[in-house]
Amino acid sequence: MTADIKKETLGFQTEAKQLLHLMINSLYSNKEIFLRELISNASDAIDKLRFASLADESLLEGQGDFAIRVDVDKDANTITITDNGIGMTREEVIDHLGTIAKSGTAAFLENLTGDQKKDSQLIGQFGVGFYSAFIVADRVEVHTRKAGHDADAGVLWESHGESEFSIESLPRDTRGTSITLHLKPTATEFADDWRVRSVIKKYSDHIAVPVEMLQPATPPAPEGEETAEEAPEPQYEAVNEATALWTRPRAEITDDEYKAFYRHISHDYDDPLTWSHNKVEGKQEYTSLLYIPKRAPFDLWNREMARGLKLYVQRTFIMDEAEQFLPLYLRFVKGVVDSNDLPLNVSREILQRDSSVDAMRSALSKRVLDMLSKLAKKGGEDYATFWKEFGQVLKEGPAEDMANKEKIAKLLRFATTHTDQADQDQSLDEYVARMQEGQEKIYYVVAENFNTARKSPHLEVFRKKGIEVLLLTDRVDDWLMNQLQEFDGKPLQDVARGALDLQDDSEEGKAEQEKLEKESESLVERLTKVLGDSVSEVRPSARLTESPACLVVGDYDMGAQMRRILEAAGQPVPDSKPILEINPAHPLLQMLDSEQDEARFADLGQVILDQATLAEGGQLEDPASFVSRLNALLLQMSKA
Ligand SMILES: Nc1ncnc2c1ncn2[C@@H]1O[C@H](COP(=O)(O)OP(=O)(O)OP(=O)(O)O)[C@@H](O)[C@H]1O
After folding, report:
1. Whose CA is nearest to atom 14 of ligand 1?
2. Ligand 1 atom closest to Cα of 42?
């Protein structure tokens, strides 16, 4: 059969083109990463074939020694990376190397800021992949043949990395892929044997497949000396260590090796914040190597974000993104798990049902939480960095993972009135240590933003008494507090909810309070009447020292923040009315008390209620009436 020699020229998909252009222009200062990316792809291709051959051994075509070879040619100014992995069909070549955008490309492009430095980091996170070849090459040829297909199914793909690529049939005896890079004049160093060796060592020691290069040629014998025999043909030799990193004993692995491996599996440019490598023996046997990244991926909040660990069974790669091994709130963790017990033909469906996977998931969750508490205890900037990037995700934990509620709670960080800074850097343990004698609860206020929280009228009495309050402003916070309920046996109390038990219990204090209530009785009664259905109750306040009034949520009613979130999401919100608490000692309330004109009393009363709503960051149902009432009152004042 004659090979189909038809040659087609096709255009890159728009997003692929954009990405290619961006990458070439942002990554030129870190050229050598192309080799890491191409070797990484080659090793993935070998992993895929190894896995496929478990079900169909004939795919190996009798050749089960896997290797990646790197050849350099100084004269031709090329470097070629060859693997004997799964290879690609013509359709796969067209799809993967030209037309199908990687998942997330569009989201990635949207996330670009235009700032070169930031964007190049983002590109690193995104995983630059095959196109990184064009950082160093002005022409790239890919010759490939899918395992299990005839030699005639070989395909040659070629591109100058601009807008098009060509594809034609070219028979290939061996399965797998070779990628030849015709180096740019600025990248000729990558045709140099020693330079390439050092890059391979740097990035590929931990790859389980040997990466081979030809032994350096022995220098010719000096003139006049007889060479005993013909110089032997140079042989290929492994340049990298070629053992899966996680299978080696911890004590023998250097930090640099751990970091390089992290970059390999995560495609991150940065080093990880920390990692944990463990071998578990006994009822279950597995090894895990888990990393905490320094930066959140751009799609952390995308439901479809790629998450999960790389799964191996007895050192054979099974799948990427096995998400069954960690709960959703730990979705930022990267790493590898290698099980000795799972069957080699394990599928995602089996993982979902397997009880040993559940046991591993709970052990791995604990491991991550322990790793985080260690990081927190270590002090320094690392935990703060972690919290900034992933704190919001961790806050989902108490709801998802009841068993580890207390452990997670210890890892939470908050802004509080202790520092009065927006930085979330105080732990609940620290709060508890600072609690006043007799203080039984942990107090918090929830608001839309830091300033509203910090200036909330609800805090007045706490500030006066020197009691610390957590200042919560993240969307999940109200919900988080409802999930947590308590910490270290101390209930968590929203300062805007229910009656406050901060009264002064001394005889004097009690008498004072009673007097206040008695004196404000008629004012409360009049206000209750004019405010009617807008509030569920009017009462004198133990909370306020400076503000005239504030809104309080009933013990069992939904908090204001939760209400706003649900409303914004178009969810039904149960009907409940706030309680208006007034500060009878405030001059405005005293003026109100002595107001004889009932119409003016009603207007002023309404303004006080509206102000209390505004002060907690709420919205008025009828802002125009508020403004006209206020204006009328201002005018009356100027006339008086
Ligand atoms: N050496 C190879 N052998 C077989 N298939 C390959 C090879 N190199 C690339 N591919 C195919 O091309 C696809 C695109 O490669 P590319 O490196 O751009 O992205 P990726 O590997 O999917 O992502 P990333 O590099 O971010 O992990 C791969 O997913 C794979 O299907």
Report:
1. 96
2. 1
